[in-house]
Every structure is written in structure tokens, then in C-alpha cells.
Design a protein that fits this description.
254 residues; alpha+beta; 2 domains; 4-stranded antiparallel beta sheet
Length: 254
């Protein structure tokens, strides 16, 4: 197969995977606390020809390959909701939640109270405090979440604050090693340990939106589609030229 076809095919494979990344970002443009994925590319040079019948080394052919994807942990815009159970985090910390698979981490601050009185995420996972899940009493009212994550309530008809727990905020030395598991959750990858975060601050009544720029991602999706279409046309032209050359070579004069 000629170099043009090989280079074009490698580029199409990269574009296909890049489209998957961009499409996932677009699908989560309205997901609270979602962090976009980005593609990382690099040039790959084919080894030069080394046969004895070459007078000198052949020119190296440049391919493209998607080396990896990385997570964009830039903060999303915050929206004022005035809902006492909505929180946003100023800083790099994550909420710690309990799932059937173990502890996981999220930036989704759209919290709720389930029928057992537990503070849970929008996906129903209990939010963990310093001493385990945070549980409210049926008579609790006036929920207040302080900047350090301490949760207090007015219990019954009393006027004295009662502490229900403190949000367990976790941060990581290298957040890129966190693994996305779906449902806006992250797990700690191999060798990754959560550290207590005391510098991030919690804002009650606000929600962090997705950091995906919808206009930018849609423009990127159009660019990828056009590039793929142009490559398809180029590869078809090369195939037609190849076919035409074979037909002419096979046409032996009588």
C-alpha cells in the first residue's frame, strides 16, 4: 500500500477517536461539575528504508497518532441556585462519596436528601463526611453548609445549631491519574491516594456547571467531520489512480 494511503488511514483513525472524545464532551455540556477530555497528539516517523539496493536512506514518512487523552480540570462557571443543598467548590477538591464499588470522587454539587435522611448525590450515592455518611433527622431545618464543609442544622424547635457532619473534601497530587468511571464519578488509579483538602472552600447555594464550551466543541466537531470527508476524497482519488495505473500496465499492445 502506498504511503499516501497509509498516512491518510492513520489520520482517519485518529479523527475517529477524536470525534468520540468531542462527542462525549458535547453530551455532557449540561452535566454539573463535568470536566472535559482533551486529545493529545504526536508525530510518528516510520523507520527509513535500509535495504542494500538503496544508495542512501529513504525519506522518513510522518504519521499522526493520538498519544492519549487528558482531563481538563479547569473550573466551570458557577450558577446561583439558592438551594441550600447545592454546593460548589472553590479549589481543586472533590467530594468523597460511597458507591457499591467503594469510595469515589465527584465535583457534582447538586446534592439531595434520600428517604433515609442521607445526604446523597444526584446519582443517589451517599456523601461521606469525616465519620461516614451524613444523616439528617426528620425535624432538622435551616441546613447550613459552612465554607470548610461543616454542616449544621436547627433541630426541632430549638435555636441552637446541631452539627450533622463535615464534608470530606479530597485532593490529589496528580489528578490526571484519576479514572473516569461514568455517572460523573472518578476513582483513584493505581498508586493514587486521596489527601484531605483544607484549602478549598465550599459555597452553599451555588452549583458548578460543566466546563465544556459548547460553541468551541461544536466547532471542533465540524472541523473533524470536514477533515475526515476531505481525507476520504483524497484516499478515493489515490485508489482510482492506482487502479488506472494497473489497468494501463496490463493493457499489452497486440
Amino acid at each position: 500500500m502506498e504511503n499516501t494511503l497509509l498516512v491518510g488511514l492513520s489520520r482517519q483513525m485518529v479523527l475517529e477517536r477524536q470525534m468520540d472524545v468531542v462527542a462525549n464532551n458535547v453530551a455532557n455540556v449540561n452535566t454539573n461539575g463535568f470536566k472535559a477530555d482533551r486529545s493529545l497528539f504526536e508525530e510518528y516517523l516510520r523507520s527509513p528504508a535500509r535495504e542494500d539496493n538503496f544508495m542512501r536512506s529513504d525519506r522518513r514518512v510522518s504519521f499522526v497518532q493520538d498519544r492519549a487523552t487528558f482531563k481538563d480540570f479547569a473550573a466551570g462557571n458557577t450558577e446561583l441556585t439558592k438551594n441550600p443543598l447545592d454546593i460548589s467548590i472553590d479549589g481543586k477538591a472533590f467530594l468523597t462519596v460511597q458507591t457499591p464499588a467503594g469510595e469515589r470522587y465527584t465535583r457534582d454539587g447538586g446534592l439531595q436528601i434520600n428517604n433515609q435522611g442521607q445526604l446523597v448525590t444526584s446519582g443517589g450515592h451517599p456523601v461521606l463526611g469525616a465519620s461516614g455518611p451524613i444523616v439528617f433527622q426528620p425535624t432538622d431545618k435551616a441546613i447550613n453548609i459552612a465554607a470548610d464543609g461543616t454542616i449544621t442544622v436547627l433541630e426541632g424547635t430549638g435555636r441552637v445549631d446541631s452539627v450533622r457532619g463535615k464534608l470530606r473534601l479530597a485532593s490529589f497530587a496528580d489528578a490526571q491519574k484519576l479514572v473516569k468511571e461514568g455517572s460523573n464519578l472518578y476513582s483513584a488509579g493505581p498508586g493514587v491516594t486521596a489527601q484531605p483538602d483544607t484549602t478549598s472552600r465550599v459555597r452553599q447555594g451555588f452549583i458548578e456547571k460543566s466546563n465544556v464550551n459548547s460553541v468551541q466543541e461544536m466547532s471542533r466537531m465540524i472541523e473533524i467531520t470536514r477533515a475526515y470527508t476531505q481525507l476520504s476524497a483524497l484516499l478515493q482519488q489515490q485508489s482510482d489512480l492506482h487502479k488506472s495505473a494497473i489497468e494501463k500496465l496490463a493493457d499489452v499492445p497486440a
